[in-house]
Amino acid sequence: MSMQPDFDNDMHEAMEHAERSEVVCVIMPFINQCLVLDGRYTADDPPTLTVSPPLGSPERRLRQVNQQRPNLKHTRELAVIPWPGSVASLINSTVWEMMVRRMEAPGFASAPEACESALRELQKWERQAMLTMISGQGPFHTLWSRTGAR
């Protein structure tokens, strides 16, 4: 029995909600970071795509987003998408396609650069998480430990 249909249905619902929400937060637990799209914009303030640590609740995330951009109308809408996979799997997903499309607001040429910058930062966090895991630091333990030189 496959779990895929439930996952596909849940992802479809999450994507529909994300398309309607002004703010989308992709939570990446492996690297303990979130990719946050603030789709609000004005003629001289483009949408933003940032990487930041989880804040613990949607309310805190909305408060942070609203504080970072006080010149914009406050938002109360937030879609949360958990992403247990790698950064590479995110790049090849409909979630990433939607975020890039939403960054491409009319009149702003900076969207590709902003998306690329966010990806580089996510990849940096992912490399650090892998090094932490391989070395057995943090919550990770190595299967074999190094003993004294022979």
Description:
The structure is a single chain. By secondary structure, the chain is α+β, with helices and mostly antiparallel strands. It contains five helices and four strands, in the order αβββαβααα. The protein has a four-stranded mixed sheet, with helices on both faces.
Give descriptors for this structure.
single chain; 150 residues; alpha+beta; 4-stranded mixed β-sheet; 5 helices
Structural class, from secondary structure content? alpha+beta
Please state the overall shape, judged from the principal axes of the Cα atoms. elongated
Strand content: 5-15%
The DSSP helix count reads 5
Termini distance? 51 Å
Low-confidence stretches: none
What's the average pLDDT?
86
| Total strand segments | 4
Enumerate the strands of the largest sheet in spatial order, edge to edge or round the barrel. Answer: 3-2-1-4
Task: Tell me about the largest β-sheet.
Answer: 4 strands, mixed
Q: Mind telling me the C-alpha Rg?
A: 18 Å
Helix content: 40-55%
Topology pattern, helix = H, strand = E: HEEEHEHHH
Q: What is this entry, summarized?
A:
This protein is α+β, with helices and mostly antiparallel strands and about 150 residues long.
